[in-house]
Amino acid sequence: MEDFHSYGWYAKRIAKHLPKGVFKPVPKRLWGGLAYLAIVVAGLLLISLFDWHPLIYLPISLVLGASFAGMGFLGHEILHGTVVKKPWIRDLLGAIAFWPLSTGPKLWRKWHNLNHHIHTQHEENDPDSWPTLERLSKSKMVRWIYKLPLFIRAFFAFASLAIQFSAHSLKMFFAYIKDFKPKKQPEVWLQMILPWATWIGLLFLIGWEKWLFAFFLPLLLANLIVMGYISTNHRLNPLVPVNDPLANSLTVTVPKWVDYIHFNFSYHTEHHLFPGMSSKHYPLVKYHIKKMWPERYHEMPIGKALIALWKTPRPYFDNRELIDPSQGSLYGSLGNGLNPEHITIKKQLDD
Questions:
Q1: What number of other Cβ atoms are within 10 A of residue 300's Cβ?
Q2: Is residue 143 part of a domain?
């Protein structure tokens, strides 16, 4: 796909087919957040106040992890301004929703709303894009890692999903803190420190064993759920010179009940076309995309997308191809020869 179009180009053509009111905030989404918050508070109290066998804590811990992730998905929507518009209420509710993931609202809006959405899959400007082999090869440790067989790297990459969101959030904090005006920096620091202080304080309050079930295991599970989506959003797509959501983004499909509890986070191409629209309306946007540009649109079941991630290497070779440095094998990306149904090596560098 060489004829790229900007997200505005697509949005302009779709918007005229959408009903009035689709860009209004939908505060009813907060009922889902309230339900998640009640579950989290109840779960924390059950673990903290009762001395039960750890096997009884485990299912509570799993529910907490799923709720942490659900709150994060709602926080993402809130901070795009699609739930409430008033800035201070938006940031307050966003901070509460992201509290379990310890990501501040001002950092998230800077990192995600501004940089990621404006520069999606740009080799240098997108903070979430996977780097090229040229950039990775500057590190001796990375060069050593990429000498390992693909399946070993895939195993550790998937295992690392359990910490990737938290680790990347901290990385983004230190990458962007200096970009805030000096008067704003203390607030950004506070938004990062307070959640972590809460969870570390909980450790001293209830002890190691209960804390593992009340926060640590739920955090790992929340990272896995969130990164299960995020890792498929763009990593199978090419790097692009133009922010073209139909080229650089992938929508995954999940059961309807999962879409319901995850606030339609699976509709990622749609989100990049209309980040200021409530995800409630994304099924309608998807209908029009598939009607107008069916050959450009990328979607697949999330399980198939994760398998494709497992079977393909991550560094980019020429922005459109993925390379396994240990073998010199090139794989296509979506729209550039990658067939998720039958993943094969596109060519060898020494051919």
A1: 19
A2: yes
Whether 242 and 4 have beta carbons less than 8 Å apart is answered as yes
- Tally of domains in the chain: 1
3-state DSSP assignment of residue 100: helix
Q: Residue-wise pLDDT tens for the chain (351 aa)? A: 468 999 899 999 999 999 999 999 999 999 999 999 999 999 999 999 999 998 999 999 999 999 999 999 999 999 999 999 999 999 999 999 999 999 999 999 999 999 999 999 998 899 998 888 777 777 777 777 877 888 888 899 999 999 999 999 999 999 999 999 999 999 999 999 999 999 999 999 999 999 999 999 999 999 999 999 999 999 999 999 999 999 999 999 999 999 999 999 999 999 999 999 999 999 999 999 999 999 999 999 999 999 999 999 888 888 889 988 877 889 999 998 898 888 888 777 765
Q: Per this entry, what is the length of the chain?
A: 351
Nearest to 239 by CA among 345, 133, 137, 342: 133
Q: How far apart are CA 109 and CA 76, in angstroms?
A: 9
Q: What is the DSSP string of 266-331?
A: T-HHHHHH-TTS-GGGHHHHHHHHHHH-TTT--EEEHHHHHHHHHHS--SBSSSSEEEETTTTEEE
* Residue 335, in any domain of the structure: no
The DSSP output letter for 348 is E
Whether residue 333 is contained in a domain is answered as no
- HSE-CB at 44 with a 13 A cutoff on CA atoms is 18
| DSSP states along 101-114 | GT--HHHHIIIIII
Question: Hey, is 332 helix, strand or coil?
Answer: strand
pTM (whole model) above 0.90: yes
Per the domain annotation, does 239 fall within a domain? yes
User: Vertex 112, ends 251 and 221: CA angle to 5°?
Assistant: 65
The candidate with the shortest Cα–Cα distance to 121, out of 338, 335, 347, is: 335
Q: Comparing C-alpha atoms, which of 109, 40, 102 is closest to residue 78?
A: 109
End-to-end CA distance of the chain: 24
Range of the domain at 145: 7-315
